[in-house]
Specification:
Rossmann fold; alpha+beta; homodimer; five-stranded mixed beta sheet; eight-stranded mixed beta sheet
């Protein structure tokens, strides 16, 4: 029989067990926080009808959607591109779901993007969304959720930039920017931090926008020129006064101020957020508050974001639903943690906590009993299968990165004892068999003491 | 804008939060047992190169494989059909993986089968496999693993049938059944329990197998006619003697006897397993011990199975690897548990443990602080967003199935206290704010006391 070369599709990858240790560490933190904040899990199929996905992401993005079919199948199918559109379909499809509907989903999505470092064609999104509430409490809780997750993961210096799409749209309408020019206006303004006031002015000129108009927009967003504005309560009040003839902008400013008022009681310290009226998020479907979180030190930039999308459910049903939420890119977080070597040192190489050795073939039943006792006590226990000498079994455990070893020889067994060896510390001791699970737990909880020289 | 009808592809479904409670209960048991037995997690992409999947499952099965493509893509892609073939690819692709490689994977697979009750086109498999060990200890541990999982889920009367492909193949070769007739022989013998000795004899005749040959095969498997054989040590020894000229069958019997010798020390009680030389599993690729677990009471039949497949890795690399493992179908287990109403009564309708109400809009910050404190203590806490009267908030919690409610009015707050209401027991009490997390935990751990009448 011809062998087939074992390989993966372009841009796809396997996550091998050693890498899974890091991944499960992050996933557990994210899922725990989602659950603490009252979000409930949802599973949707990877395959959706094409018509559900098409027309939602823009024509450039649509080219990245994978199509699916089976022999004789009559449906036009596709792999999901994100988790927000399936969520919107679910909310429209089951109107009986209690509102607000707070769901989380941690699942892969597929995009046929050009593969490059840190970008994969299958990647995992961690979404938490609240559907059915227009309250700014919902947006504030999403920001508190992001804050909680990033702090628990170990980030110390990061900031969530806040804005509201209503303000941007209001400014545009108020100053008379033609509707067709609005997307270009936003795209240019988003670059303020990168290319400065003059750069943006030039880009706006290139789009054909009236120069006086550009100046007025930029004058509102950057009254002090290139110096970024601190959008504190006073500055926002001043902006509201200036925009008092534009109900949309006024509503956006009120939304932001209400949202801000909730953050202290939600435990989000002031250092972790800042209003930035020039922050624009890429997706078209945002309608209210938007947020983007940057890791400031080290300076790695955007790590997650989100916002309010009150119109998306309305693509599937006459009665839309207000909605807000966030998407955390699992791979982005993991890549950053690895780059910055931010993983806890005691995470280890494997979830296996203890290897039960087999002293000799006659004693295999004793080792099986020991392993069974340890598993019943909830320990993660591997049994050695080979008939090798103890030295080989120890080398195997070292290679695998298993921290603890249990050895049960005939003398020990007849004395009702077993030997525990800590391979991290090159420490070993005999313990009574009955207290073995407890002894192993204590060893695992104690940072290993390095061997004395 | 035209709305798109929200609906799912044929045979696909969403798992809504209420259903997820049951699902996570089962998944947690399965994953915990996998981890205790020393299995490590692996993620492979949903999309594989078609050539990896084709030629492994048989032509009928191949028709059920979903094909995948993206605009401009040059690769022939497909959605995975199971988790065993991707595992075999992984083992061949990364020869540096330490052996034995014990991995688990809980993930969806896709098959375009005709939808029917209990059968979905996307369904989840829970696979645990050991690659790189030919030891019968590996097979014995897989059986102990299945036993542990089913007992923890709540099954009490079930039995794992054991056989070895080498015995069947050996019997066939020994008696001179032509190789091309072997698959048909197995297919017929698999029906012994269903259609009895005469039924199988007739079916064998229909396949054109020589009648004397059929009788000799059936005479070996059922020496006492329709009465099933108890294949204890003595019966297996007798069979080994009869087959002593057939090394393959002798090897199979020895494997089974060795495997059986390990089960007591692994905590698998005798009532939970039985050798059945007439048990045949469907998949072609099994090469050694095979197992199939039946739930006996209530009589619902096969619930999981597995076996040794020493040749599969060899489809991808010159040097194959011995391998054994099991596949647990998550949906099958959940459907059975629901049908038999076997879920723990205290599982509830939601993972949310407590709803923090908002007494009035002036006190919203107090409720935010309470929610933040409870979350920091690890409780699963939802905050009420509306500005409704308390009665509406309570009705909402009842509808959602949230067990506990926290109420913080002005009098209570000024006294440093809050009210806890248990909606399951219609019980309420005031507790000091500092001990609120502890009080809620105790309530959750106590079965609710029904209201006195």
């Amino acid at each position: 029989m011809k062998t087939i070369q074992p390989r993966l599709p372009k841009g796809m990858r396997d996550i091998l067990p050693r890498q899974m240790v890091l991944r499960q560490h992050v996933t557990a933190i994210v899922e725990q926080a989602f659950t603490e904040f009252g979000f409930e899990p949802l599973i949707t199929p990877a395959v959706e009808l094409s018509e559900i996905l098409l027309g939602k992401y823009g024509s450039e993005s649509e080219k990245l959607i994978y199509m699916v079919e089976h022999p004789g199948g009559k449906e036009e199918l596709a792999l999901r591109y994100d988790l927000s559109v399936p969520l919107s379909r679910v909310v429209a499809q089951y109107p009986e779901l209690p509102k607000p509907f707070r769901r989380y989903q941690i699942a892969p999505v597929w995009r046929a993007e050009r593969p490059q470092k840190g970008r994969y064609r299958e990647f995992y999104q961690c979404d938490a969304d609240i559907v059915g509430s227009a309250s700014m409490l919902a947006d504030a809780e999403i920001i508190a959720l992001i804050n909680t997750i990033l702090r628990r993961i170990g980030f110390q210096q990061f900031v969530t930039l806040l804005n509201d799409r209503k303000i941007l749209t209001g400014i545009g309408q108020f100053l008379g920017v033609p509707d067709v020019k609005l997307p270009e206006l936003y795209r240019c303004i988003d670059k303020l931090d990168k290319i400065g006031l003059e750069g943006v002015r030039k880009e706006l000129r290139d789009t054909g926008l009236d120069a006086a108009l550009s100046d007025r927009v930029l004058g509102l967003l950057r009254p002090d020129g290139d110096r970024p504005v601190t959008w504190d309560r006073a500055a926002l009040d001043a902006m509201r006064l200036q925009m008092s003839n534009c109900p949309l902008a006024v509503e956006g400013i009120s939304e932001l101020q209400e949202l801000l008022s909730y953050l202290p009681a939600l435990g989000v310290a002031e250092e972790f957020y800042r209003v930035d009226l020039a922050m624009v998020r890429g997706l078209d479907y945002y309608t209210g508050p938007i947020f983007e979180t940057l890791v400031v030190e080290p300076r790695i930039g955007s790590i997650t974001g989100g916002g309010r999308f009150d119109g998306l459910v309305g693509r599937f049903t006459a009665q839309s639903q207000p909605a807000t939420g966030t998407t955390i890119g699992l791979e982005r977080i993991i890549d950053v943690l690895e780059e910055l070597q931010m993983f806890p040192a005691d995470l280890g190489q494997t979830a296996v906590q203890v290897l039960v050795t087999v002293f000799n073939p006659e004693l295999v039943s004793e080792s099986l009993k020991l392993a069974t006792e340890l598993r019943a006590a909830g320990l993660h226990c591997e049994l050695y299968y080979g008939k090798d000498a103890l030295g080989n079994q120890i080398r195997y455990a070292l290679k695998r990165g298993v921290p603890l070893l249990v050895i049960a020889g005939p003398d020990e067994l007849s004395a009702g004892r077993v030997t525990v060896r800590d391979l991290r510390a090159k420490f070993q001791s005999q313990v009574a068999r009955a207290s073995l699970p407890q002894a192993l737990r204590e060893r695992l909880a104690t940072p290993p003491i390095p061997e004395a020289h």
